[in-house]
Amino acid sequence: KNCLFLLLLLGASASCFKLPQKFIMKGEVSCESPYQEVGGRCMFVDFLNKGTWNDMRNHCKSLGGDLVKLNDPAVYNALILHIHGSGFPLVYYWIGGTDEGHEGLWVWIDQEPIQMGTPYWANAGCDNDQMPNGGTGQNCLALDYVFNMYFNDLGCSTEGYVICEQ
């Protein structure tokens, strides 16, 4: 009985209070166009506009958002399923991470450290090198179609498409 009461109470309060994103069930997120609900968050996969990491960050800001932050494996998985399920092209998509100005310390645009290794970063080559391995010439983060949409460091002036989050 106590659990049922608590669930009813939480359900009722959800309509009165904004719950943190991680507690919002799929389908309960209201996204403004051109954003769509993906993994409980509002995202826009833009495969029509192409530019550098900074160009695409400015593009996201012009749409009322910023580059997507993929710090949750479930959200990352939902996004990859969304890309494949929607028939979006497999290309480079800029996302909101960089180590520019602090080589080797990868952070999201809000300065939260990016988890290194599995399940996010690509492996490459005969030696199965773990990304990022681009050194000072590759300081911006993308989902890389060459590596099955895993994270990869690219040169920030590389032209790519973008995933924005509101």
TrEMBL record:
Keyword terms, alphabetized: Signal
Signal peptide: 1-18
Residues spanning the membrane: none
Domain of life: Eukaryota
C-type lectin domain sequence ranges: 38-165
InterPro entries per UniProt: C-type_lectin-like, C-type_lectin-like/link_sf, C-type_lectin/snaclec_domain, CTDL_fold
SMART domains the record matches: CLECT
Name under which the protein is recorded: C-type lectin domain-containing protein
Species whose genome carries this gene: Cherax quadricarinatus
